[in-house]
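Listing S7. Sequence submitted for prediction.
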Amino acid sequence: MTCRVRDWLMASAVLVLAGGAAFAQESTPEALLAQAAQDEADERAPQSMEEAFPRMVSDPMVQGEYGAEVVPLVQPWTPQQASALAMVMRGIEAEGLNRSDYELAGLLAEIGRGASDALNEIASRNFVWLVEDLRDGRTPMSARKQWFVIDPDRDLYRSGELMRAALESGDIAGTLMQLNPSHPDYARLRQALADTPQDEVEKRKLIRANMDRWRWLARDLGSQYLITNVPEYQLRLTVNDKIISTYRTIVGKPGRTATPQLAEMVEGVVFNPTWTVPQSIVVGEGLGQKVLSNPAWARANGYKATKGEGGWITVVQQPGPGNSLGRMKLEMPNEHAIFLHDTPSRHLFATDDRALSHGCIRTERALELAITMAILGKGASKEEAVEIATSGEYTLVPIEKRLPVYITYFTMASDIDGELATFKDIYERDAPLLASLDQPRVQNRARTSDEEVIVIENDPRAAG
């Protein structure tokens, strides 16, 4: 590693979260991180959903929605409270939902009859339906192709608790609208829906579909996180919903190696990784025998082979500039064996269509990202991270402060320049979602996908 490269890495570490000159003039990374800490300290109840509706784990549990509600799902409603609920139902299409999914006419009829058990039943039922659709998304799991994110909001914001709070405060609409995703893109899509004429049916459906995709994620993604939109081929490092850095990505090829949608935690950074070659390559492509029979070629390419009992051959590519994983990978354990990593084939980031990998996500400027994660995660100082990165030796740096990473799929979203844009549906995942918008609302929706978990034998050489 030359002194010039080492100096560049040190400079990158010092500016560890810099997102470009224009952004740097606005606000420094240190200032943003300090502000994030101050914001946490300055929070005043009840200015957030988390403050207003904490999960009451110490309360006695009773049978209810999902088997464990702390308050009943049918509660007393006055005609005035029910009228406020009816107003929400009238305007719910502004949130991309279908007014016809709810019993507005029946509710209005019961309001006209005055307080009654029947009013309590229909108002409570429709309030719960609105909570489910605004909190969890309207789309049934069968229409969420390769979506394996577990949304925590169902546990955090329970229907019975929300209903009780809404009725006690009298703010039915405010309680429900606080369930909307906090990410700025949701509000932007909502505004786009309001600005799109009713006769532009297909565009409105696409906007609504992508609004619903935000509901499939946690309402609050956190103060610091990585998020990648697969069809955009971009990764963002985000602090307080401001983009600090962006990185081009290479994602899975359409078909069996398409990248699934996940929400995981970065638990560590591997600098100068090794690559244990899958047996489909060792045996299927004959790499094992080639490494054993051609030591000079093996050394030149960093391969080491071990032959065990029964002729079993294990091949590991050692750290180095030609390693197929590049100079780093992010440890984010998951059953799909998907992770973010570097690549020696960096010329591919200049291409437009970057659905080329075996499922894992390759990132440009990966060493900068790795150093950033090590520092942000309190796994190493900038000096330590640079020293490890330039050592050439395999090093796993566990991080104390784990960062979420969201692998998402939006075909309409803000691009890295801040413009609302549409992206090619590279995996054809829009069709089932769009079709579901025309179908009646599905009750008792599953929380987890029953799709096959495809554990891909990662071949980082693919299309390289």
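Caption to Listing S7: primary sequence and predicted structure tokens for the chain studied. The CA atoms of residues 295 and 445 lie 57 Å apart. The radius of gyration is 25 Å.
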